[in-house]
Amino acid sequence: MKNLGRSVPRYGADRRLRGDVRTVADIALPRCLDMRLVRSATPFGRLVSVDCAEARALPGVAAVWSSAQLAASALPIRVLGSGALDPYRQPLLAGDMVRYAGEPVAAVFAETAAIAEDAAELVAVEVEADTPVLDPVAAASVLSGDLRATEATTIRKSFGDIHLAVHNADKVVERRFSVGRDAPSFLPQRASLACWCQAREVLTIWAGWRAVEETRVAVSDALGLPLSAVEIRAPDIDGRYGAGAELSAEDLLCAHAAFALRRPVRWLEDPAEQISAGPHARGIEAVARIAFCEDGQFLAMDVEFWCDQGAYVLPDGLIAPDLFAAMLPGPYALEAYRAVGHVRMTNKPPTSAVRGAGRVEAAFVRERLMDTIAHECSLSVDAVRRRNFVAADAVPADRHVDALKSRVSLDGLRLGELMDMAEKRFALDVVRRRAHDRRVRGLLSGLGTAVFVEPSGLGPVDRAHLSVDHKGNLEIITTAADWGQGTFVAFAQIAADIVGIEMERIRVRGGDTCRIAGRGATLLSGRTVVTGTAVQNAAEVLREKILAGAAVMMGVPAERLAIRAGRIREADKHFGKQIDVGEVARALTPGLPLSDGTGLYAEGTNEVGAMTYPYGVAVAAVEIDPHTAFVKVTRASVAYDAGNVINPQLAEDQLVSGLVQGASAALYSMLDGWDGSGSAPFTLRCAGAAERPATEVLLAEETPTPLNPLGIKGVGAGGIVGIGAAIAQAVDDALQTPGFVEHLPVSSAAIRAHLRERAQQKHAPVEEPRDAELMI
Amino acid sequence: MSGSRPVERKIRMSFEVNGEALTIVVEPRTTLADALREACGLAGTPHTGGGECGGSTTVLVDGEPVFASLMFAVQAHGTSVRTVDAPAGDRVLDAVRSAFKEHGASRSDPSMAGYVMQSVGALERNPDLDDEGVEDLLAGGFSHEGQYDSVAAAIRTARTLAKRAA
Questions:
Q1: Residue A270: which of B2, B27, B50 has the nearest Cβ?
Q2: Does the reported pTM lie above 0.90?
Q3: Closest partner CB to A17 (pick from B53, B100, B144)
């Protein structure tokens, strides 16, 4: 049976229902120590002293470390790092300065988590507090006691002649937009476990990282161990949607301690630490000057932006600013573009890449600008968008900018058609009319849309090993870990169809460096694209090997053989001799005459040239309570073209969870407005069941990518990217105030103030049907 | 280890977990969730480190749904506790499990362990739980992946399956 394109259930779909899980917290090693961190309560200041004596004296405490006990060691910057950024790397434990409330100052290692917690309270930390830098835009002018400049790096991307384009334009408008700080939400909390085995001289770490091999290299560098002495095992990782699992100071501290103390060390994050300690996200402010013609032609965009990067540049910290600048032009053909981004240090927890990093912000700013053009030219935003899409015949379209050092080149873009499909499938004319009718009756109801393109399938390379055992079971080993998205079952579907073997006989393993080495990283929603293609390449080699072996065994030329359900027979005969792939595997065992020395085994590599670019249309319908100004998203939908889809159910699940998360972040994120002084709010506010929008997903599959044989583009973050921008437009529509939303999350307080002001003017706006059209 | 710090005070407690009588030693501050995980070796209740975390740590104590991370283990002394790790053979739990699986509501979301036990508690108390009751049940938890619609569908199916098995 054909498996590609079918919604095969993910592996272990019901594990959670039986308690069959094995997260880091479930791995019990004898003599394991628990680590607890002492964190700075002060956002900024000179670290005068850390007194650990009393904590060390507590029975059950194995060690207490401050930076004095730890050789100077800092987190590497994995993405876009350089020597110039060294002063901005996060130390494992604060040295001379503390730079955010929540920064680790000392680490306690004790027999139980409870003792560690008690001991941590006995560590006396003295900080000479200084005035923290909290505003990224003003940061450059603030004189701080710190010895590093507040601007860690400047991101520049541009093409075309901006002055010429501005000269040719009918209108030039400047707008300011911002996206507040947010944080991912982890469940279970972050965790790390490290164990040094003296007998084997190997350090084993159980952690779910997105870039397993690069992280392994970082650990071996930090500890001065040969690479072969560091192995990473993949536990169950889930509930991590939205959070990039990158190497953290806590992970490296566990590794250091396990090596130094010769005992297993684990760290289980306390929810009380989560928001102050864990990476934050977003936090970007942009001033965009746009040049356009009266007919709606978008000529040029000149944007300056400031990133509230926090106290340090984390391993994946520069992904968001880089992608913001790279993806800001989106699907629109501009004559000229210039982005200057200031990556600014503030005394807040460092930010990193979470789901939709940089692209959520870019889609919001870009689509707000399209609304601006539409309003200025008295056109519908739909018309302005369609007027400016990169022409389908110009694809592949070089966008003249790099995203994470990979050239942006759109590989298929039929956004106009996708907008038409979304209009029909989601019955937008009905929704629009209903919103209009409700507004006429004095209610605040609106509809908004946003379009976007997504980068996906970032390389550079990934590998897969396939082998068949003596019983005919196929094992796939990849570098990619399964984070619960279900990519493993997609890999199995690919191999099943190519080799011709049943799904039931396939097992997939991944993220385990004992079994495979390679650079694969779960990043930019492209696991299926990058690793899936490696699996495909390996499967093709394996198939040839099976057929060649069977041809000798059966005395029939390979080209006349077929593999169905794991059995090989002559393609044009329904009866007759059949042999199982297990028999071929046995005959190919190394040492036997048929073997080439490797057994029934194949390797596949996928060296990625360019990224793929799926695209989508996000739709949001909102209702605003006229009294409380509470915004409820009643519908959140996305039409998405990710090329061919291997497993529609997995794709839909991804998109739905992105929509719900994106809608929640666009309205409720609590870190917005937090001034950074003291600790961050204890809990993150998220939309629950009562606030959930009705969700709909349309998977278009109209433009399979030519960049890989399966024609897949990757789904990942497609749900979250456009929904915030769509909600912003829907709120404008509900209020009938073009350009009202300038900041995400949308503030109910601002809406209330606006409504009050409007009520005072006493002229309830009389709505013309044309206005309703104008907004959509 | 000796001394007068409260850390070292240990308490012996007995209770029934998923039908099995157990006696364990815990500290007064140990939560029921940690006791189930660490002392009883049951991994189904997610580690939350003490937070309530959207009801993901729900277990049934004498049939009543309780957030195990917000209850001290010693408070469960002498009770009968049921968790998501329970073996097959329980009518309502079996129905809930198969309904969650059928609707793909299980996925990898740890919150689902909580929803499963909340559903069992609710359906045992009221086998005719109406759709409003299902919505109330949903509001009592939190899905990190926004899979509320499939959970709602699963609870409704579980209601039918449990009745049929009765």
A1: B50
A2: yes
A3: B100
Q: Tell me the two tokens of residue A345.
A: 């240090």
Q: Does position A117 have pLDDT exceeding 60, yes or no? A: yes
pLDDT class of A774 with cuts at 50, 70, 90: very low
Task: Report, as ranges of residue numbers, the positions in chain B whose pLDDT lies below 70.
Answer: 1-8, 49-53, 106-108
Give pLDDT tens digits for B19-57.
Answer: 999 999 999 989 999 999 989 999 888 887 666 667 889
Q: Can you spell out the DSSP letters for A569-602?
A: EETT-SSS-EEEHHHHHHHTSTTSTT--SS-SEE
How far is the C-alpha of A399 from the C-alpha of A605, rounded, in Å? 28
Q: Which residues of A touch B27 (CB under 8 A)?
A: 114
Best mutation site among B100, B132, B144 for testing chain A: the one with the most A CBs within 10 Å?
A: B144
Tokens linked to A439: 């507004």
The pLDDT of residue A60? 96
**Token pair of A463 as six digits:** 């590998």
Distance (Å) from the alpha carbon of A60 to chain B's nearest alpha carbon: 7
Nearest to A513 by CA among A218, A238, A242: A218
pLDDT greater than 80 at residue A509: yes
Among the listed residues A493, A491, A537, the one whose alpha carbon sits nearest the alpha carbon of residue A510: A491
Q: Is A620 helix (H, G, I), strand (E, B) or coil?
A: strand
Express as a percent the part of chain A with pLDDT over 90. 66
pLDDT for A588-624, tens place per residue? 999 898 888 889 999 998 888 889 999 999 999 999 9
The answer to whether residues A258 and A290 touch, using CB atoms and an 8 Å cutoff, is: no
Q: What is the pLDDT of residue B128?
A: 94
Cα Rg for chain A, rounded, in angstroms?
Answer: 28
| DSSP string for residues in A261-330 | HSS-EEEE--HHHHHHHS-BEEEEEEEEEEEE-TT--EEEEEEEEEEEEESS--TTTTHHHHHHHHHTTT
User: In this predicted structure, what is the pLDDT of residue A601?
Assistant: 94
B10: contact with A, CB 8 A cutoff: no
A745 versus A684: the higher-pLDDT residue is: A745
- Interface subset of A 481-500, CB within 8 angstroms of B: 483-484, 486
- The radius of gyration of chain B's CA atoms, rounded to the nearest angstrom, is 16
Give the mutation candidate from B5, B7, B107, B112 for the A interface (greatest A CB count, under 10 A): B107
ipTM associated with this complex: 0.89
How distant is the alpha carbon of residue A327 from its chain centre? 15
Rounded to an integer, what distance in angstroms lies between the CA atom of residue A32 and that of residue A26?
12
Element (H, E) at A468: strand A461-468
CA A282, distance to chain mean position in Å, is 12
Instruction: Write out residues 22-61 of A within 8 Å (CB-CB) of B.
Output: 22-23, 25-26, 28, 58-60
A230 forms beta bridges with: A203
Distance between start and end Cα atoms, chain A: 45
Strands (E), chain B: 11-17, 20-26, 58-61, 64-67, 80-82
Give the residue-averaged pLDDT of A23-39.
92
B27:A114 CB<8 A = yes
pLDDT at position A771, please?
44
d(C-alpha B14, C-alpha A506), whole Å: 44
Q: Do A187 and B149 touch (CB under 8 A)?
A: no
Is pLDDT at A255 greater than 60 in this prediction? yes
Measure in Å the smallest separation between the Cα of B132 and chain A Cα atoms.
12
Which residues of chain A are within 8 Å of residue B1 when distances are taken between CB atoms? Answer: 59-60
